[in-house]
Amino acid sequence: MLLATPRFWYSRRPTPLARLLQPLAWLYALGVRRHRRRSCPVRLPVAVLSVGNITLGGTGKTPLVIALAQELQQRGRSVAVLLRGYGGGSRRPRRVTSADAAVQVGDEALEIQRSLPGVAVWVGGDRVAGGVAAIAAGADLLLLDDGLQHWRLARDCDISVLDGRHGLGNGLVFPAGPLREPADQLGRADLLVLTGPAASELAVPPPLWPAGKPWFRLAGWIEPPARLIGVPLLAFCGIGLPAKFFAALRQAGLELAAAAGFPDHHPYAASDLERLQRRADIHGATLVTTVKDWQRLPDGWREKVVALPLVLDSRMVEAITSAALARMAPRRLEIPE
Fold first, then answer.
1. Nearest Cα to Cα of residue 127 among 159, 158, 157, 149
2. Does the pLDDT at position 200 exceed 60?
């Protein structure tokens, strides 16, 4: 069952409910540590760059993966993106095509594949096997989506993505807070990227980020098509932090007549869209959603809903790419031929 992100996760201080859940959080953290200790990372013969987060969703990781893949491709690299494929049960690698459905390969995999012509996207629980398949198909650099806690595949550079406004939330591990692992593990990444609107220029890394390690502020915004300017909108989404999407729409100068949030990766049924359409009709509004949510819409509804992508600061993407390549270069030289 999918659940919406609890508000108490992002309270400044742990609430009584968070404290009540802390024993479960300790057990969860213990399981993460044991799993990591038992894993034996496999080193593949090409560079591996991972993008992940220490928190559960809502950081803007997928748009960054797409932007990095585009930039690396422009620099002459043959990139392949590896994902687990949310909701997919197969461990065997599968190359994603535009004809696939979200229930088969996951919404993020479809969003990435449809945004990256010429870039191979592979899903499967065994990402070592996925990497081998991608290399056999011609990849010379593997971009691992959501790879920060994937221990089996050795990486040459880890990028941790963190929401610039919400940060580490209440600082507690799931289910007491939003963290996938204890906060002191933030610093094991090579690069930190703080995401958010241009207004988040004052965002700074948490104190746990090691001094001297590179970090970047990456602004993102929505550039709406002209036909939506001045038009009432009913916005809906099922992402980690739905309020971020609604705020981005308002910052873009769009008119929100209503907004509806769903749990992350919500599998939309026709009845959901019919209900949303009835609400929109009351306001004379157009339905809009994220590109990720658009992948999960039922048949017949994609033509009726406008997907609004997040635009990232291209100069900062170039800087992050250069930093990642610089970090990977000496490590690749250390690998024996």
1. 149
2. no
